Amino acid sequence: MARQIKIFDTTLRDGEQSPGCSMNLQAKLTVADGLAALGVDIIEAGFAICSPGDFQSVQAIARHVKGVTVASLARAMEKDIDAAWEAVRDAESPRIHTFLATSPIHMEYKLKKTPEQVFEQAVKMVAYARNICGDVEFSLEDASRSDPAFMYRIIEGVIKAGASTVNIPDTVGYSVPNEFADIIRGIKANVPNIDKAVISVHCHNDLGLGVANSLAAAMAGADQIECTVNGIGERAGNAALEEIVMNLHTRAEYYGMTTRVDTTQIYQASKRVMKATGVRSQPNKAIVGENAFAHEAGIHQHGVLANRATYEIMTPESIGLPHNKMVLGKHSGRHAFEERLSYLGHRFDEATLDSFFEEFKILADKKKTVSDRDIDALVSGHSGGIPEAFKLDRFVVNSGNSITSTSVVRLVLKDGSKVEKVAIGDGPVDASLNAVDKIIGGAEIKLEDFSLQIVDAIDTGADAQGESHVRITREGRSWNGSGVSTDIVESVIKAYLVAVNTMTFELEQERNRGA
Ligand code: KIV
Ligand code: ZN
Questions:
Q1: Residue 406 sits in which domain range?
Q2: DSSP E strand boundaries for 204-323
């Protein structure tokens, strides 16, 4: 029988740690729902001690998701472990994931500790965590550059102290598949009590080998793989979940291993992560890139039409990307509409869903078919349950290559009043955001990142749409927003307002809590 590999997803912790990938609470809950639907075994929801925001989101996820273990990261220190436990204790199945570096370079320069001190701290802190929580994972940070004999000793010690999972990270993405597999074989052969724990691996992608190293380790006996959706993560990222799962699925006869993951949920999970972070995968990214299933060359198209297996080793349907995109129309029911929203990566409460369904019915009456883009546009500007402190009412831009751009923007405020301001700027987008800033008092807000994609809906016959993603920062914190419209300036204003509304809501909540 195929051996079942546990999938430990760290999109919300290691993934979120990467530059530009920070997510707000609502976005994290949306991603967590997508991961639960995917069927991962463990969700690492964050690093609870890091900040009050991190603690709050780990706790919210732990209380919200069902049928999956929820972990928080903690350094091997009592205060970290206490915070991690407080954050995950309400989960159906809580885990504390504690770590300490074991490589000579990390011990000497980062920890400034001797190997003996590291051994003692690791064992003591695992015992401390195990006293509080029945499920403790210990990671030997920078394991792939650690002395094997020292590693065996620590692993034996932490298992004796109660660790039920030991994680072997290739923290700096330095290892190569055969070598990494040998490390796992070495652990299996030299740690006497290794049968009492699950061996996990956690590979970074600095040399582009994150997935290959993880799979080689699994072949050598590791039973858990740590990975992230779309491969997001520190520097070059982590091993990509979708690539690991689809390798094991597509080449099942070779690997002889399986996972609990429902592969048909991969596409929605990937979209959720892109939406939540505002970070798009490269078009040629395996499994989830826009071109992953596109056959451009005539000879390939011909082959695929004759027999899909000529050039297609897996079907788009197997990751939840239907060949013939389902279109909705006026006869579509609420259930189909809700499913489509979920597939497109949106998550709303019942009341919001009801009001969007009403709007959808009106739109479907006007148009024969309602495309994915129309649905995105319908819900864009909505910040996923976050109250709209500012809403776009109208705007007018005057722009050209020989004049200074001017924009007049009118926003609706929370109390229903309307405020209009005019501003100039370097182009229509800059002028419009300057006008918005004048209304919202946004002098301290910095537009950190802005991307615009023109989506040409050839297959649906709809007008081309602009899809904007922005990241704003204020006092070192950042918030994302996205917006869709047939008018590109409008799509940016909408995206900006989503980010501003999220920021306003979160800061207001923190003030109310007295944080
Ligand atoms: O890369 C790494 O070593 C980590 C550990 C904290 C598990 O992320
Ligand atoms: Zn990592």
A1: 390-514
A2: 224-227, 257-258
Residue 149 has pLDDT above 90, yes or no: yes
Give the residue, 244 or 328, on which the prediction is more confident. Answer: 244
> What is the tally of structural domains in the chain?
2
pLDDT of res. 443: 84
Query: Relative to the alpha carbon of 144, which ligand is closest?
Result: 1
178 found inside a domain: yes
Same domain (yes/no): 253, 400: no
Q: Is residue 348 part of a domain?
A: no
CB 439, CB 446: distance < 8 Å: no
Stretch 24-48: mean pLDDT:
96
- Pocket lining: 271 vs ligand 1, CB cutoff 6 Å: no
- Residue 395: which of 486, 273, 489 has the closest Cα? 489
- Residue 331: CB partners within 8 Å, gap ≥ 6? none
**Ligand 1 contacts CB of residue 171 (under 6 A):** yes
Using CA atoms, how far apart are residues 499 and 440, in angstroms rounded to an integer? 12
234 Cα–ligand 1 center, Å: 10
User: Has residue 335 been placed in a domain?
Assistant: no
pLDDT at 344: 76
Q: Is the CA virtual torsion 421, 427, 433, 438 positive or negative?
A: negative
Task: For residue 92, report the phi and psi dihedrals to the nearest 5 degrees.
Answer: -55, -40
pLDDT score, position 194 = 98
pLDDT at 460: 47
